[in-house]
Request: fold
Amino acid sequence: MALAAAFAVSCLLSLVLMPLGIRLAWATGYLDHPEARKLHTSATALLGGAVVFLAAVAGWAIAYVTSHPGLHREALLLLSGSLLVLGLGLGDDRFGMRPALKLLGQSAAGVLLLAGCGVPALGFGAPLDAALTLLALVALMNAVNFLDNMNGVVAGLAAIAFAGFAWTSAARGAFGLAAAQLALAGACLGFLRYNFPRARVFLGDAGSLFLGYSLGASAVLAYMGAPHGWGRLGPLLLLAYPAFDMIFVVVNRLREGRKIYAGGKDHSNHRVARLIQCQTTTVLLLWANGAALCASGVAVLHLNRPGPTLLAWGLWTTLYLLVGLRLSFEPSAPSGSMRTPLTSARSGSTQTPLTSARSGSTRTPLTSARSARTASAPPSARPSGPHPSEARPATRI
Reply:
């Protein structure tokens, strides 16, 4: 009952609070402004991630007070680290942040997690195990930030993965952690009402980074809570797609002699959308892929045998290799349409079109520092750009 309450309450709160978050973003300047090198013609709010976090925490707290699922220490680790990364992203969204400082904040959140739950035993010795885990956490945060380039992708995949992690947490008796994970899933689901298929609000770097941390922390906690054996490779499958996309982009940019950190619409989902000529169908396919990965990871974790583990990993690795090879031959952008990355909006964002619809941004995680933003004037004083209640939704590509 507590788990269902956490999911339902956070979803409802996200639905109710998101319009307030949109108005607050307009009032405080947390906006993605249209400029000469951007394609959306109206400013779009950036506080979606903050509302998702607040709705999730409130949903988890209400479930705890009313149903007492257990104040699990792992849940506090998950949410406290998420708060730290959220604050980091909010500063980055509004004022810009140097890559070194951004990395330091992400690393601090990872250290906080490892200090609270311990270092996963990877078999390389404690110091190297800690370094590899921290590197993986930081990489995942940026991979999710990297992937937040199309309406609904990150929020939908995160909701599916959190539901899978909640299942594994509840199975081992960590009901407080499961409630927090389901609260995050519910909040992401409520956010999609305002972000897919047309967007009135974006997650912002704050949202994508905090969701990346929460997913990575959930994987670490699931790994450490699982029995010793092959099943520990299961949680990694739930996060296979963000890892695949980052590897795909890095390999292709190196192969083409381009800078890794330069923005572009050459992600795997961009190429799929160009191939099938439909962004909405692409997002639905990615959600189905995430659900299949989730089912595979949960099965591997609970079966805890070498046969199913090797079979699942072999099939998914082969599939992604074939898909990656096919998409590598799909043009990364129509001739002349690639634009240089913007530095006056969110970190590393590049707005480039896939279709005639207005686009949002394709983020690259650790780029050069952005220039200071111009604070948004109150709606009544803005010479251009509609009031948030009048603004048409934007489509992010």
Notes: The radius of gyration is 20 Å. The first strand starts at residue 31 and ends at 32. Residues 2-361 form one domain.
